[in-house]
Amino acid sequence: MIRTQIQLTEEQWQALKKLAASRRVSMAELIRQSVDLLVQTPEVVSIQEKRRKALEVVGIFHSDGPTDLAEKHDDHLAESYTA
Length: 83
Hints:
This protein is mainly alpha-helical. The protein has helices spanning 10-23, 27-40, 47-60, 69-82. The longest helix has 14 residues, at 10-23. The radius of gyration is 20 Å and the shape is elongated.
């Protein structure tokens, strides 16, 4: 393994320490697991990107837009994410 240093906020450190204790693993192991998850799933979109896409959707629907939005809003939202 390669040793490295990272900097965390106080809140991140506290949350990580608590989670590590509850799972009975080291903080380093939790960080390795997190990195593995991120690297293995590159299609994971950041919260900021999800928010941006959701806000884009708001501008798509005008008075001449879909008439079934109340019933099929999930379908329209999913369609906008793939566009």
